[in-house]
Amino acid sequence: MIARYTLPGMGAIWSQENKYQKWLEVEILICEGWARLGQFPPEAAAEIRKKASFRVERILEIEETTRHDLAAFVQNVSENIGEAGKYLHFGVTSYDVEDTALSLLLRDSADLLLKDLEELSSLLLKQAALHKKTLMAGRTHGMHAEPTTWGLKLLLWRSEVERQKERLSAARASVSVGKISGAVGTYATVPPFIEKHVCGSLDLTPAPVSSQILQRDRHAHYLTTLALIAGTVEKIALEIRHLQRTEVGEVEESFASGQKGSSAMPHKKNPIVSEQLCGLSRVIRGNALAGLENMALWHERDITHSSVERIVLPDSSILTDYILKKLLFILENLKVKKEKMKANLKSGGGIVFSQPLMLALIKKGLSREDAYRLVQEASGKAFQLNKALKEVVSADARFTGLLDEKELSALFDESFFITHVDEIFSRFRK
Questions:
Q1: Which is the catalytic residue, given 141, 267, 299, 420?
Q2: Whole domain around residue 317: which residue ranges?
Q3: In terms of CB atoms within 10 Å, which of 144, 227, 285, 404 comes out highest?
Q4: How would residue 382 be classed by pLDDT, with cut points 50, 70 and 90?
Q5: Is pLDDT above 60 for 43?
Q6: Is 141 known to be catalytic?
Q7: Is 76 a domain residue?
Q8: Around 220, how many Cα atoms within 13 Å sit in the side-chain half-sphere?
Q9: CA-CA distance, 292 to 302, in Å (whole number)?
Q10: What is the domain count for the chain?
Q11: Beta-sheet pairing, 135-140 with 177-178
Q12: Full-model pTM
């Protein structure tokens, strides 16, 4: 597991101290709800609010005996309250407290991740605009296809990040739910008013129906959304890795002064951060599967989900925050090699213009099959002889008999491929 007790931000959300603090707030609100109903003396609720506190070390000490974390927590808090402590945890079950508090942790985590995604989205849009017409080879199956632009790649990623924001917002709503309904969800020992009071105070939606726990499809929704976000991060990181290969060399991760890429080979500059992101996204995807398997429990509840969640919910939240911040670092410092992009685009001798050439022949009256065959044959010859496609075509009467020099020159103009780039960009808000 990732160390999570001294980390800022997301690590702080998932610290033991913060978890117990959320439990404490839920317990206090339950007591205050009972007092509002007239079931407890108002001064007892006030005393609980004033004196309720805990000490992590003491809870863990008690848990050695109770072997039940919530029971140990209640005992420690009661010790600090005194006489009014007898009203603590009245009528409720452990997961009334734990699940409601867990929803707060998940909501806080989602809020932090939404900020990460917004920052990433803004950066991608800004960089896409800067490179809107930075031509480079498009690749399908790893081979040169037609030209695209670095800006369009960035815009494509930005569009996906926006969809991840929508998904995470939906998952946030799914987990922003509380449950104070007793041992099996019937409200037999705790009236619905208490749930409404607690959830209203915490800005959570009361679960319309529950068992002993909130249903785990909610948590699976959250975890699978993080897995999707990790998939986007990996997609971007993988592209950067491919484009940094020696044979391609179109982008490059930042390389700090004094950094070493290899203990044996001084020349090495490896895309190590992108590789880290690809690896860590596998962990997040694996955790999502565990979340899905937590949905099916025995009857009103068993605890097979509990031990799993203590790992996968904090770790996936922390990891997703980490890889998003790392991706931001990569993109902010990425070296974009425009000249290398241009050189690679031209390295095929213009074979990327094969489709415009074919379409021009069709317009001149050839069948699609005949036009395709002619251009395929000329492209193969150009590649084999290491000549420019235009040179090969200009020496072939089958082409020159249909297309004059001016028409041929127009067909090999790179601006053809970015004719509609401005229109694509106009679809995205700034």
A1: 141
A2: 94-253+265-342
A3: 227
A4: very high
A5: yes
A6: yes
A7: yes
A8: 13
A9: 15
A10: 3
A11: unpaired
A12: 0.93
- Share in percent of the chain as helix, strand, coil (round to 5): 65, 5, 30
For strands 251-252 and 335-336, give the pairing.
antiparallel
Chosen domain end from 342, 374, 400:
342
- Is 308 exposed, middle or buried (CB count within 10 Å of its CB: 0-12, 13-18, 19+)? middle
Q: Residue 3: pLDDT above 50?
A: no
How far is 238 from 139, CA to CA, in rounded Å?
A: 14
Is the separation of the CB atoms in 23 and 97 below 8 Å? yes
Q: How far is CA 335 from CA 253, 278, 329, 374, 411, in A?
A: 6, 20, 12, 40, 32
**Does 310 lie in the same domain as 209?**
yes
Spatial CA neighbour of 211 closest among 289, 74, 99: 99
The pLDDT score that the predictor gives to residue 254 is 80
Q: Are residues 322 and 369 in the same domain?
A: no
Q: How far out from the chain centre does Cα 171 lie? A: 12
Task: Note if 197 is an active site residue.
Answer: no
Of 219, 232, 215, nearest to 290 (Cα)? 219
Domain boundary, last residue among 317, 342, 367: 342
Q: Are 141 and 114 contained in the same domain?
A: yes
Which DSSP symbol is given to 251?
A: E
- Report the C-alpha gap between 181 and 185 in whole angstroms: 5
**Residue 6 neighbours by CB distance under 10 Å:** 8
Q: Does residue 403 belong to any structural domain of this protein?
A: yes
CATH number at residue 383: 1.10.40.30
- Whether residue 212 lies inside any domain: the answer is yes
Name the active-site residue from 53, 122, 254, 262: 262
Looking at the structure, do residues 110 and 8 belong to the same domain, yes or no? no
Phi-psi region of 350 (alpha: psi -120 to 50; beta: other; left: phi over 0): left
| Residues 288 and 186 placed together within one structural domain of the fold | yes
